[in-house]
């Protein structure tokens, strides 16, 4: 679709949705009334910025079902995000919502090059988390064969992958690294039929994507989504890996300056917000995701005209402020993988000693470093400390640790321990 055609479609859908929400969701009706806004004031997508924002706190305040726009008898499924702080966020789906979700995920899988002949191992967690069931029904909708493994039991994952001849795997990038380790230990890489991985649910870097591709001899794709908006399948990258195509016919993206909430220019990094324009059960106006990215409306080399968002830098609430310097875990990951002399497993430990913030980075290195001369270990420690200092603009204490010291993730990885928050 051309940009004009897309905007026409978005406008039509937005107008209908605003009317529906105004009449069915008290929370939004009150918000709009307080702003002196009526459904008729929204004449198209150009009026999007007149609508109120929605935050995670709004969902929590209306826990569990307060923002639903349809009667409970029309809700066919709920999911929830556990959330590390506070109450869970509960989301609901109508039958049509589930159909649209399946279609979005099927689009992603087709974009990755998968089809009916493929066997897709779904190793995201099944349950209230949207990853497992989201990929599951998307893959079925595509007509592929689904292997519903869920996460965990890594040895079994590897056996099934080999025995069933799985051609694709969907899981978090950190869990895939763990699976790769087990595959390597068992010498099974040459025996598997894998050709693609669909990884997301947590920030990861382009270097990590390439590392996965090289070690598995496959194509690895980035899939994005969040439960509040739907789940996996809101956006994903094509074979050019030049940003993630957003399914704008369902979700209208905006990039906002997180301080002023004014729109950012294309290319400028800001907070991503979504307005859903087809959802029936839980429609959201301008939902602030806290995810930091930029947008590009130019046509992609693959031919798609859907807007692209850049690989995520992190979330506003993942940003660490250490001695006044803003740091994202992704910067550490990029620097370590660029250096290429360690494993991709790292952990950041932030503390406050004598009123001063400290950052220690643990990095796993090969066993041989611990048996070789101590000089070599010291040399690598200094080298990493230097590289990290250059990347972060902050002095960092580096501790090289033996393989398997850092806990492996089966879902979303925990890269940071902030002891300042524990006291
Ligand atoms: O993580 C949905 C999902 C499942 C996406 C499987 C992709 C694959 P939530 O648990 O609600 O939903 O967490 C959403 O995870 O706001 C981002 O901060 C982060 N996230 C998701 N995908 C990516 C990605 C699922 N590709 C939150 N890159 C989002 C970076 C991601 N961060």
TrEMBL record:
Task: Supply the alphabetized keyword list.
Answer: Ligase, Nucleotide-binding
The UniProt GO MF terms for this protein read:
nucleotide binding; phenylacetate-CoA ligase activity
Pfam families in alphabetical order: AMP-binding, AMP-binding_C_2
Residues of the AMP-dependent ligase C-terminal domain? 324-420
Please give the catalytic activity noted in the UniProt record. Answer: 2-phenylacetate + ATP + CoA = phenylacetyl-CoA + AMP + diphosphate
Q: Which residues form a coiled coil?
A: none
| Top class in the EC scheme | ligase
Entry's Gene Ontology BP terms:
phenylacetate catabolic process
- Residues annotated as domain AMP-dependent synthetase/ligase: 81-274
**Which EC number applies?**
6.2.1.30
Q: So, what pathway does this thing act in?
A: Aromatic compound metabolism; phenylacetate degradation
The task this protein performs is described as:
Catalyzes the activation of phenylacetic acid (PA) to phenylacetyl-CoA (PA-CoA).
| Subunit and interaction comment | Monomer.
Q: Which family does it belong to?
A: Belongs to the phenylacetyl-CoA ligase family.
- The protein in question is named Phenylacetate-coenzyme A ligase
Q: Which organism is it from?
A: Lachnoclostridium phytofermentans (strain ATCC 700394 / DSM 18823 / ISDg)
Taxonomic lineage of this organism?
Bacteria, Bacillati, Bacillota, Clostridia, Lachnospirales
